[in-house]
Amino acid sequence: MSEQQLILSLLERLELQSERTIDRLTAIETRQEGTRVELVGVNRRLDVANERMDEANHRTSKNEARLDAIERRHLVDDGIADGRAAQRQAYRSAFARAWKLIWSPMGKGAGALALLLTGWTLREVLPWCGATAGSRYCGRWAARWRSCWPCASSSSKAHRRRSMSEPTVLFDRLPAAGPITGGFGQWYFDGERTWQHRGVDVGCPTGTPVYAPAPGIAAPFANDGSFGIAVCLNHGAGWWSLYAHLSHANVSPGNSVQRGALLGISGATGFVSGPHLHWQLCDSPSFPIAIARSRDPLKYLISEETMETYRWALVRVAGGPFRPMLDAYTKLHAAGFFIDVEAIEGPAAPIDNENDLNDSLVRRLRIQWLAGGPTALDAARLLGVG
Question: What is the pLDDT of residue 147?
Fold first, then answer.
């Protein structure tokens, strides 16, 4: 074989080897492309799985919130049942002592005196005392004490018959972070007397911030000392709320308080068995007050879902037709809702009533700013939306 033929043979081999190498590279590229497509599909499936996981977590959070609410209601119901059982036992003991004294040698009037000594059941025992068999003296004692007892006077009866309007205030949060440890209307018994809880107790350690769940004006109130350091808010329409057992109050009577403002710091002042916040809603700033003139503040606490409805209602007003938006802005501005945002913006985004497009945009943005802020509920209620 000549040298030229040898070179041609080598060239043919190299060309064949090159073609095989190119084929292998092409196959590798094809496999890589297939792998990339598979990875894209895997990523899409992972995204779908993550979305489903987020939805499942959201549903789980809602279910947990519902379970917590059910547990709180059960705790309140258990406390009421325990309190009523203790009250029935106390009544039986008082009746037994009184009945024993009625027929004792001490005299016919001793039964009435024994009943009066159990002052914690006086309201309930006096009618029974007047109707006890064989004791006209008991009836005389009962009539005398009815004339002295404030709840039996004609003015008090007229006051009890007075119809109470329901509160118009709405709370958008608990005043302090913590579980409900004492429910409204729950019965308590200390071994000597029973009473009904006129508010709600929030279990929180000393030092927990207490925020205003609704706007109002800090008002002076009658305090017998049992509430310790406390703040009373006047919400208008004849309703007040009380935040008691604080270690420090951050507002003074006469101060205007916005929703979400710091009222004070929780503590254990007054008559308490441990640190907690007492939250009460009633139709008078004189405390303590009858439970018939109080309301369960939790019934006026709106849910997060309802709050979102109010926020989105404001967003729709901001993005709606110009004339309704302008009327809403004028109403909100007159009520002082934009004082804070105007202080933040300063001259950066003025409304000069000359540039219609700019002025409209600024108004819409300010209403949207309200929708995401702590005063969204009050703004939406003022406009009557949501």
Answer: 43
